[in-house]
Structure formats: C-alpha cells, structure tokens
Structure prediction request, 155 residues.
Amino acid sequence: MRLSSAEPVGVPFGATPLDAVVMGASAGGPPAIESIVASLPHAFPAAIVVCQHMPPGFTTLWAERLDGVCHMRVKEAAQAYGSRAMGVLLTGLGTDGALGMLALRRAGCFTVCQAAETAVASSMPLSAMELGAAAEEASVDEMAHLIAMHVTGRA
Prediction:
C-alpha cells in the first residue's frame, strides 16, 4: 500500500465512521468489484455506490434499468456525503474516473485507488495518483480490509 504525496483535506481519515463508499471502475472492473464486495463483512454498515463503465449494447437493459433508479453521480455523491464518504477507484482507462475522485477528495472524502501494477488497465489509477485525487493506492486483495477500516473509523 502506498500513500499519495497530495495533502489530505477535510476531517482526519478514520476520525469518524463513514456513510458511503463510492467505487468507480472501467476496463477490467467487474472482477475487481466482485472480489472487493465479496470480501467485505456481512454486516457492512455503509452504502456502496458502484460506477462501472460499460460498452454500449453489452448490458443495455441493465444500464437502462439503473439509469431509472440511480440518480446520483460521483460529483453529487461528494456533495451529498462530503467527508462522510470514501472514494475507491479501480482499473480503467482515461481520466474521467480520476476527475470524479478528485471531486470526492476535495469534498473531504478519503480516497484510494487500485495499485496500477495490479490493474487490468492502469491509466485511470495512474491518473488518480498524478492528480492527487487518491490519498493511497492498494491492491484489490488489500482493498476490502482498507475499506472496512475506514468505514468503521478504525483506520
């Protein structure tokens, strides 16, 4: 696990339990998300919001259904939860996820991205570290433990 050189904002990490975890992923994301969620404690006390890029037509019906019931985007999550949320950015391409994570970090959220060397597609986690959007990076294997520690305030 590595720490970002960017300065933390908001309340000290681990000072209070969190209400939400916002996870973003793109290329290679479904297996990483599945691994993390399956490893969280059964009585996990926070909401989990997943933002997953999907190719058009691949999961069209599922995406349309989610569009009808999920109205919160990453920047809105930052406004809704402020420092009471945690941002998790996983494997993916481009910078859009990193920019969303930066909004979360600026709102005072604790943020962590997948270690680039463990990602199927590393440009999104690398962008998060370069922008100072991620406070830490960790492997998928370390992620569930890290999330549980920060959500419960035991970090």
Remarks:
- Residues 2-7+14-152 form a domain with the Rossmann fold fold (CATH 3.40.50.180).
- The helical segments are 29-39, 60-69, 74-81, 96-106, 123-131, 140-152.
- The beta strands are 2-3, 20-25, 47-52, 85-89, 110-114, 136-138.
